[in-house]
Amino acid sequence: MLTRSQRLDILATDLRALGLGAGEGASPPITSALVSRLLDYAELLQRWNARIRLVGPSDLDTIVREQLVDACGFALAIAALDAPHLIDVGAGGGLPGIPLALMFPDRDVLHVEPIHKKTAFLAQAAQALSLTNARVHTGRAEPDGRFLPPLRHPLSDPPYLALSRATLAPSPWLQTGKNLVGHGGLVLIAIASEDTLPREVTDDPESTEVGRWTYTVPVTRAPRTLVARRVL
């Protein structure tokens, strides 16, 4: 069994293998404090996962190296995009929303999840990790951009960036995301790198592509692509 120190070293190595913390002005820097807090989150996720299904794997090392590191790849796009307010739709167990809140303390992250047991975990994670920039909403983001039930507190001033990890297919996600963020907002689409975005996404007349990032999950070699589109 690995020690915590060994897990911290492996996690830091995997994050750098994604391309995080590399190069001049890279954001976010992969500090020992950040890596420790990310591991704290993964440990909490594993404990809750034994009671309610939050992620597929049950052992900590798989959660860290496959689930957590994969979700941290979203930081490659977030670091390059001007979006102070993030909306994680179908937040589940907090991947990628909680890691992004840890990595970008100057950005607000709203986690939208319809299942009460999962939002209970998200609220506990935010409290345990002292994430003052993380909010949790038990409900859904409707295709027309409404939150049901409505948010208790309104969103901060735009611009917003909507993201989702494997909740909807690219085309319906783009439509929902556009309605969530409105004019000037951003929608981040995540796909496996071997997949091709449908033409209704690439040729969408109401948005334009502003960035594309690729990475590979180190332990599984699974390729990922993130595509950002700005609403016109």
Order of helices and strands: HHHHEHEHEEEEHEHEE
Radius of gyration: 17 Å
The tally of beta strands, per DSSP, is: 9
Structural class: alpha/beta
Helix content: 25-40%
Which word captures the global form? globular
Give the CATH level 1 class: Alpha Beta
- What oligomeric state do the depicted chains represent? single chain
Largest sheet: 7 strands, mixed
CATH superfamily: Vaccinia Virus protein VP39
How does CATH name the architecture? 3-Layer(aba) Sandwich
Quick structural summary:
By secondary structure, this protein is α/β, with parallel strands linked by helices.
Could you explain how this protein is built, in words?
The chain has eight helices and nine strands. It has helices at residues 4-18, 32-49, 60-72, 75-80, 97-103, 116-128, 170-181, 199-202, and strands at residues 85-89, 108-113, 134-138, 140-141, 147-148, 160-163, 186-192, 207-217, 222-231. The longest helix is centred in the first third of the chain and has 18 residues, at 32-49. The radius of gyration is 17 Å and the shape is globular. A hairpin with a 4-residue loop joins β8 (207-217) and β9 (222-231). It has one domain (4-231): Vaccinia Virus protein VP39 (Rossmann fold, 3-Layer(aba) Sandwich), CATH 3.40.50. The N and C termini lie far apart (52 Å). α2 packs across α3 and α2 runs antiparallel to α5 (97-103). It is an alpha/beta fold. Helix content is 38%, strand content 22%. Strands 3-2-1-6-7-9-8 form a seven-stranded mixed sheet. Strands 4-5 form a two-stranded antiparallel sheet.
